[in-house]
Amino acid sequence: MNFSSSRQMQRQAPRVDLSTRLSSLGRIALFLGAVAAVAVLISTAGEAHATPAPWSQEATYLSNPFPALVNRKDTDPAGYANRFGASLAAAGKTLVVGVGEEQVSTPANGGPDPYAHPERIVVFERVADAWDGGTLLQAPSQYRPPAGCAGGAGYDDCYEFGRAVAIDPVDGDTIAVGAPAEVVAGADTKAKHGAVYVFQRTDAGWSFLTRIISPNPNPNDRFGASVSIYGDVIVVGAAGDRATADPSVLNGAAYVFTRSSGSWGATPVATLRSPDISPGATFGQRVAIWGNTIAVGDRAKDDVQVFTGSGANWALEATIPGIFGQSGHGLALRGDFLASGSEFLGDFPAKGEAFLVKRVGSNWGTPYALSTALVPAGVSKPAWFGGSVALGEGIVAVGTGCGVGAVELFDVTLDGSPTHVQSLSVPVASTWNSRQFGKSITIAGPHLLAGAPWDCNTSGSDCTEAQIYQEGSVFSFINPTLMVGPPSPPRDIIVTPDIYSLRVSWRAPTDDGGSPVLRYRAFSNPSCEVEAIPGVEEYSCVIEGLDPATNYEVRVIAINAIGEADAIAGDDGDDTTPPVTFRVLEAMPVPFPGYLNMILVFIVLALVRWRGALRF
After folding, report:
1. FRET pair for 175, CA 20 to 30 Å: which of 32, 34, 287, 342?
2. What is the pTM (predicted TM-score) of this model?
């Protein structure tokens, strides 16, 4: 089932108003909305936070549906995939699973080949309250590495397709996949230049869209080691990128790519770097984007840099020190909350920490160590706590990448103070003690997915070595109280024509679908967007760059974390009723702007009076 094609599109008729002033009723509604928002904030901050209903494991866990498929150009029948669930991303009803390694042959001793490579991702769709059988996505054959490219130096030598995965949380129809060890130029199979592959969903299903590479690929750039997407922006981390002419000095970078008219630009519109460029930095080790905010982690320098902006213009907003750690793997951003994990921070066996930071205005507060919230709950911090982190609606999840593994859940209030609410553990009985449950985590609405890339998919008492390296699992949890859907359509569309633009105004939907509306998009090719603000009822934006004396059809979309709903101007719900088109005003030749005309009138009058005075 194609989630995008199953969205229910409800339509409403517009009102046309050539006045740019809000009505008295609109001003009253806006005032009341603001008062309501303040009242909600005050009441929420002052009351005790109720513990939500617990998350429960679904009956069926996910395993690799393509375990015997060899993706290389060779056809070794002994090949198999392993470490299913090493990377995860989810949006709405779509789940993306990376396969952590790829077995290409069986060594003489019969054991697993340590020089394997990830080469695929599997996309699952939520159908009838269950995950489907999965769809295989691969890079086009011309980009896949040749057989035997490992060279005996490690499994990450020449590809790593699927090491990082991301899916657009706005509509769930775009996937970005990192391949940080791919060779994009030259014959050195260990160059690790890196690449990112973009896949797009249409009514026909998923298909490869484009391949993005660094504008200046160098050995060990590892472009694509991390990747994040939000709407029309993809952020790609390249922790080995060089900011100086010295090829031996690694500094790291994050590249920003944008989409226009359905196509992703091959050249980055912006390159983000740490303001403190120093040798050994790994800026770009992890990246995250949400709305107009980008977070970039640097595990070597133990900090996270936060940038805000849009398009090609991004400025450093804050440096949050001490929250990334020596080998942090987790970084998540959602709204004004940022979570970061540092699985090797501290001494064994109590290694690891995870932090939560909240932004108020443009100020990021003091990082809150989530392990301190475990103490009142009587929960001991597991080893490598913070190996992965994920943010959902009012919740932060922290995973461990050590041993059997675990996932700790914290409920987050509006003031940013977290409370430990639940511990998730491996739900399959076995004596195998290195499943790495929680090595990867993702949250989408009521669904929490946790990867166990070393799980052997057995309910028996033990796992064989072959099973460990051949399999891997993803466990699905659900919280019924968070069941959500797309919002209802925006209301009362008002279109005000101008010479080169259309001002579009509307009111918020009556139903947000159970998840807050994130943004609105008004478009007529081109479009304009505006972020949703809690408690605000009325919105507007201007669609610019239009042709004078031309008709345009206008559509407004409300988007939440699950999906979208739109209202087409002029459509009253009857498919036989054509949408209303709005005609941009004709450009009238005016010799001078209005205020210059007034000045000329005063000058002429003054000259007349002056000449009259001379006659006396």
Report:
1. 342
2. 0.70
